[in-house]
Design brief:
This protein has eight helices and six strands. It is an alpha+beta fold.
């Protein structure tokens, strides 16, 4: 999506803090929010792409000023209400209006990690179409505006790159966010940093992005 939600490669937001304390959460409520998110994984109609689209609907000022896990809470609750898992009245009251189907239990850290690992999703798909590109091909990313979810970041649009690897077909997120599942070939594309950001000058840094076939055109 175009807008403040796509911050990659943009300037003016200050330095990236890299020396924060090595703790998973700053506050207890953040840990609870993480638990709510993981326990709700797989709710009907809630895919990772739909979840990201809903998060990108947050008002720009709200999105940029709300704490990270607070915006997660906003997104989780919206998707659960939309899926019929909870109601807005339950959110407002902070209490469930439905009878619980099982007793809550305390999990150990090891159990929580194992459960989280078991919830991984395989996004690969088998499709009939042959890949249109191959390793070593020179390509250019499309340059477009997008009001819905997309995984092609703004800073990499209209830029030349090289196919580094082919990963087979995977669910195409732009359509998945709309509720349409379709597979499309996925590639790892390598870009010279100077082609993404001219101020990189003669530096030899490279950036690798996994991009879907419809984002790319051969050169």
């Amino acid at each position: 999506m175009d807008g403040p939600h796509d911050l990659g490669g943009k300037e003016g937001f200050g330095p990236v803090v890299t020396d924060e304390a090595d703790t998973p959460f700053h506050h207890d409520w953040e840990g609870r929010m993480w638990g709510i998110s993981r326990s709700g994984a797989g709710a009907p109609g809630v895919t990772i792409d739909w979840w990201r689209h809903v998060r990108e609907l947050i008002d720009p000022v709200d999105y940029l000023t709300r704490p990270y896990f607070d915006s997660w809470a906003q997104t989780e609750l919206a998707t659960y209400i939309n899926a019929g898992v909870i109601t807005l009245d339950e959110v407002r009251s902070g209490h469930s209006a439905t009878q619980k189907d099982r007793e809550a239990r305390v999990q150990s850290v090891a159990e929580a990690i194992a459960q989280d690992a078991s919830q991984g999703t395989d996004f690969s798909r088998i499709i009939d179409a042959a890949p249109a590109l191959k390793v070593g091909d020179h390509v250019r990313t499309l340059e477009f505006t997008q009001q819905h979810h997309t995984r092609l970041p703004g800073y990499a649009r209209g830029k030349p790159g090289l196919i580094h690897a082919h990963h087979g077909a995977h669910i195409f997120p732009d359509e998945s966010a709309k509720g349409h599942e379709m597979g499309q070939h996925l590639y790892s594309v390598v870009f010279d940093a100077k082609n993404l950001w001219p101020e990189a000058g003669d530096k030899r840094d490279r950036v690798y992005l996994d991009l879907w076939e419809s984002y790319l055109e051969p050169l």
